[in-house]
Amino acid sequence: MIEGRESINPSALYEKLAPLDHERYTTELCERYAGQIARIMRLKRERRAIVLAHNYQRPEIFEVADFIGDSFELARKAREVGDADVIVFCGVHFMAETAKVFNPERSVLLPDMRAGCSLADSVTAEALAERADELRKIYPDLKVVSYVNCTADVKALSDSCCTSANAVKVVNAIDSGNILFVPDQNLANYVQAHTSKRIISWDGNCYVHHQITPDEVEKARAAVPGLIVIAHPECRKDVIAMADAVLSTSAMMRYAKESPADKFLIVTECGLSDRLLLEVPNKHFYKACKLCRYMKMITLDGVADSLEHLRYAIELEPEVRVGARRALERMLELGA
Ligand code: SF4
Question: Where does the pLDDT of residue 72 fall: very low under 50, low under 70, confident under 90, or very high at 90 and above?
C-alpha cells in the first residue's frame, strides 16, 4: 500500500482458505466429472444460462464454458450475452461484478463467494479517494486509471479502467500527463516503461505473479534449450526484463499458436498452461507452477449448485454500477 496507509494483508486472507487439491485426472475422476458436466448442461438449458470462464480456471470448467477469455474479453462478452437470463461467472468476484455492471437486469452468479483477489483487496474506494485528493493538490490534471482487477466502487472513482492488454493504450490516450494507476505496481511499472507520462503507482500486487523470481526463469532456460519465455505484465520488473514477450493471457494464446517455436515457458497463473495444453497439443508448455487459490475455488460442483439454487447473486448499488460502467465504457473506447 501507499506509504503511511493501512494495508490489507492478502496472505492473512488466503491462509484461511482451503489448500488446493492436486487431483489427478484419473478415469474415475473423469467419469465423475462427466456426470457433473451433464447436470450443468441440463441446468444451463433450464435456466437459460450462459457460463463465462476466465483463462485461469480449472480445465474441467472449460468443458462447460460458453466463452473463455481474459478479463478484457470477458468484459466485452459480458455486454453481449444475447437472450440469457442468467450469467454464471467462473472467475473471481470483481469479474462477476463487471458482468453485473453490464447486465443489471440479469442474474449474475458467482459459484463461490470466497473467490476474491489479493490485488483487488489492496485498494479501497476510501483510500483511493483520499490519495487522489492529495495528489490533485500537486497535479491538478491528475486522472485515475484502474486496472480491471479492482472492485466496482474503485472503478466508479476512476476516469478509465484498463486491462493488461490495453493499459499502455488507455494511458497514452487519456487527456492528462499525470496518472494515478491502481492497484498493480508491477503493471504500473510496465506502463511507465512504455509511456512518457508520469505514472504514480499504488502499492498492490497479485500474489501469484509477484512470487515468480528471475532465478526460476533462469533455471527453466538452463534446463530447456530454445525455450521461449512469455511473461504477464503483472510479473515483477526483473522477471519481465528476462522475457521474450510480455503479453496478456489471450495474447499469450495467440502468440503460442502462431509462433514457429514449440517450447514455451508460460510465466503466469498455471491455468493458462492447461488451456494451452488442451488447445495446442503439438507444442510443449512449461508452467511457472503458480496457482491462484481464488480462481480454483470454482469447481464443477459449485457451478452446478449455483445453477440449481441460483446462488450467489452479485448485487451493486446503482451509483456504483453507473460509475463503474462509465469507467469500463471509457476503457472500451480508448483501448479498442
Ligand atoms: S491471479 Fe492474482 S490478480 Fe488474478 S485473481 Fe488471482 S490473485 Fe487476483
Answer: confident
pLDDT of residue 183 exceeding 90: yes
Confidence (pLDDT) at 272: 85
Which of 209-225 are b and which e, b meaning 16 or more Cβ less than 10 Å from the residue's Cβ? bbebeeebbeebbeeee
Whether 174 contacts 124, CB under 8 Å = no
Place of cell 499458436: 257
Segments of the chain assigned to CATH 3.40.50.10800: 10-116+295-309, 120-207+323-334, 212-287
Q: What CATH architecture is 120-207+323-334?
A: 3-Layer(aba) Sandwich (3.40)
Helix axes 318-334, 93-102, angle to 10 degrees: 90
Residue ranges of alpha helices (H) inside the chain are 10-14, 27-47, 59-62, 71-77, 93-102, 125-138, 152-156, 167-173, 185-192, 207-210, 214-223, 237-240, 249-258, 271-279, 300-309, 318-334
User: Cα of 325 to ligand 1 centre, how many Å?
Assistant: 22
> For residue 177, what pLDDT band results from cuts at 50, 70 and 90?
very high
Under a CB-based contact definition with an 8 Å cutoff, are residues 234 and 211 in contact? no
Q: How confident is the model at residue 23 (pLDDT cuts 50, 70, 90)?
A: low
267 lines ligand 1 (CB under 6 A): no
Averaged pLDDT for residues 163-175: 94
Q: Is CATH 3.10.20.310 what the domain over 212-287 is classified as, yes or no?
A: no
More confident residue, 163 or 160: 160
| Whether domain 10-116+295-309 has CATH 3.40.50.1820 | no
Is the CB of 294 within 6 Å of ligand 1?
yes
pLDDT at 287: 81
Cβ–ligand 1 contact at 149 (below 6 Å): yes
